[in-house]
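Thread: Modeling a multi-component assembly for a lab meeting

Hi all, long-time lurker, first post. My supervisor asked me to bring a structural picture of a complex we are working on to next week's group meeting, and I have zero experience with this. I have the sequence lines for every component (597 residues in total). Could someone generate the structure of the whole assembly? Inputs are pasted exactly as I received them:
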Amino acid sequence: MNVYQLKTEKFSGPIEKLLELIEEKKMEITELSLAEVVADFLNYLKTIEKKEPRMLADFIVVASRLILIKSKALLPTLELNEEEKEDIKDLEERLRRYAEFKPSMAIFKKLFEVNNFSVSRQFLSNHEPIFYPADNFNVSSMQSAMKSIFEIFSQLTIETKKIEPELIKLEDKINEIIKKIESGIAKFSDVTKEKSRREIVILFLALLHLLKEQLIKVEQNEGIGDIIIKK
Amino acid sequence: MDNNTINQQNSIASLEAILFAYGEPITINKIAKLLNVEIDETKISLENLQKELESENRGLRLIFSDNKVQMATKPEFSHLLEEFIKEEFKESLTPATLETISLIAYFGPISRAKIDYFRGVNSSFTLRSLLMRGLIERLEDKKEHGGYLYQLTFDSLKYLGISKIEDLPEFEKYKNLSVINNN
Amino acid sequence: MDNNTINQQNSIASLEAILFAYGEPITINKIAKLLNVEIDETKISLENLQKELESENRGLRLIFSDNKVQMATKPEFSHLLEEFIKEEFKESLTPATLETISLIAYFGPISRAKIDYFRGVNSSFTLRSLLMRGLIERLEDKKEHGGYLYQLTFDSLKYLGISKIEDLPEFEKYKNLSVINNN
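Re: Modeling a multi-component assembly
Sure thing. I ran the full set together rather than chain by chain. Output:
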């Protein structure tokens, strides 16, 4: 095609990706299996951050639910409220529905690629153009058409720039953990002391992030015990 | 041959001529007006034409969507007509476009909100790209002011080699899935 | 049905599909090559198709000239079509055509890709319709092989009552927007 074509997302949406990760592990859609794939999903999030920043906000929404699930599995002291429980149920339900519909995509893809098509004719292809103006073909109607085209067009540009705030939060939390470690705090429960549930979730995401980057080490002596952070 | 048969034949012939000359999808209402007959009668003539076209010595078929009809070649002659494939269809579908267009194919006309909910991601760019490629089209959503519903274009139906959306493989099965919350 | 009859029928159907899709006159040699048969055999198939088309319930005919053949509507339907075109073009410009012709007026000569980019939807039918209506014309795009650029016709400018395109209101403003978005 050419330069004016929009770059489309080369990546699947978060639901599709999540389902793919669960299926890779040959697991059913349960809270347990979701907790299993959190690290992989966060890893994929980084690819998205680099290559499709436009999709990042939506991936973070799903990631935060996953982290909630993971946090609950790791921190038994964490009580979920009704809304959070609903969120988790909703995610499972959506994954199940996606899994049900997914085979149709393969069918569609095959049909699209098989090159078995019909050809039609162009509009009035055996006719010569004749000049037929219209009552609304005038300078002022064209001017207002231009106005509305560019109003919509500029909205589109704004929409692409809405994703930054969420990111900054995560970045902040990473810095917060680093500072706390440097000031001698070594337990995750101390880091999360007196924090809101939402903040705890983001802190946990930050912790996993640091772990992935190998900037910290963690230890958890008992299955559901506190997490010890080491540099 | 009685008068009715002659009229029947004439109407098939006129239909064929109109669809051939017009080229683009045309509403059944417009055809009825042009032929100066009732809409129901036009529908019967279209059915008759369609039956004629099913014959093995015909190379054409009718494509239906909404209240429109278009004449096109039968897909079994694709190999003779490679040069007519539009650029927009040659490009393959990315995971995002495939996710979106399959959903539109089986559940169209469908709103963006439902597509977004199903995919878990904002689909406005994917939709825009599919619209620009002419693979999908949007209609005004009569239930929601300023909203749109998306469905496959005639060009897509033709490219897939089907004559109406219900001809998609396992259409009923997927159509009846409760893929999208009724919210 | 013996093999010969089946082949005969298939070749009539393939011929119909080819002539329908090509629209313009096509050489018998080219058809023979497409069908992968001898020229003489192609001529026989064409004769058979022509005989079929003579039937009263067909609206099409073949036109032979030199070594070429073209499919067209039977002359008895031409009044019907002329009337139809007049009716069709009596109507006001739809929002889609108005958007498209405005972009062409302000930014012309402009490519279809760029029009699609600003509108966010595929404009091929709209462009075709404006061309047939004599409101725009297309030029070959020297920068892109096989591409076209669109601009207003002289008739349009006269009808709008502007002597040059720069006289359009806010011409400079939009011209600049076009440059900014020229990615």
